[in-house]
Amino acid sequence: MIIDVITPFPNLIEGAFQESIVKRAQDKGLVKVTLWDLRNFASDKHHTVDDYPYGGGAGMILKPEPIFLAVDEIQEKYPDTETDIILMTPQGKTYTQQLARSFSQREHLIFLCGHYRGIDQRVIDALVTEEVSIGDYILSGGELAAAVVIDSVIRLLPDVLNNSDSAEGDSFTCGMLDHPHYTRPETFQDISVPEVLISGHHEKIQKWRHEQALRRTKERRPDLLNHNEKTEDASGPCS
Length: 239
Hints:
Elements: E1 2-7, H1 20-27, E2 32-37, E3 50-51, E4 61-62, H2 64-77, E5 83-94, H3 97-104, E6 108-113, E7 118-119, H4 121-126, E8 130-133, H5 143-154, H6 165-168, E9 187-188, E10 191-192, H7 202-220
Parallel strand pairs: 1-2, 1-6, 4-7, 5-6, 5-8
Antiparallel strand pairs: 3-4, 9-10
C-alpha cells in the first residue's frame, strides 16, 4: 500500500510514522508512507502556500497552485496505481472503523492536510475524492487527524499485526465495544482476575467476553447496538 501526506508542516507528524506498528509495517515493506512538504511546491522565494480569502474575513486559505503541483508529482511517480485523495476536514463525514477497513483495501491514498482557515474550494472540487473528519471539534490543522487515520488503516493491513485476531476483536469491528482484558498477576491490590478467564473453559470464556462486551456497549454506547444485528450471538470477533 502507498500512502502520501501533503502538508505545510510535515514535522508535526513525522515522528508518528517512525515508531511502533506503523514503523514495523514500513520496515516489512507492507506500506510506504511519504510526507510531502507543501512549501516545496510554492513558486515564490518565501515559499508562500496561503493567502487572504476573497470576500474578506479572518484566517488564511491554502492556495491551489502548490497543492495541484504536489498531487501531480505524486501521481506521476505512481502512474499505474488507483489513487484516492482524502481531505481531512471537520466538514467531512465522521471517520469510523468501517471506513478504516475500506481505506485499508485501497491501493494508494493521498491525504491533504488543511491548515489555517481551510483550502481553496477548487482543490476540493477538482481533486478530492473523500472528505473525512475524526470528530466534531477543531484542530489547528489536518496533520494530526491524518496521522490518526493512517495509523488505524495500517494496522488493518494483512500481516501488519503479529496476530490478526487482534484487529478482528477491536471495539467497533463487530458493532460493539471490546470486552475487559486482564493479564498477570492473577491478584493485584486484592483484586482478582475473573475466575472464568483462568478456568480453561473456552466456551465459557467466549460467552463471558460477549456478555461483557454487550454490557459495556449498552452502558457506554447504546447507539451502536442499533446497527448490530448479532448482539445475542456469542460467537464472532468480539466474543
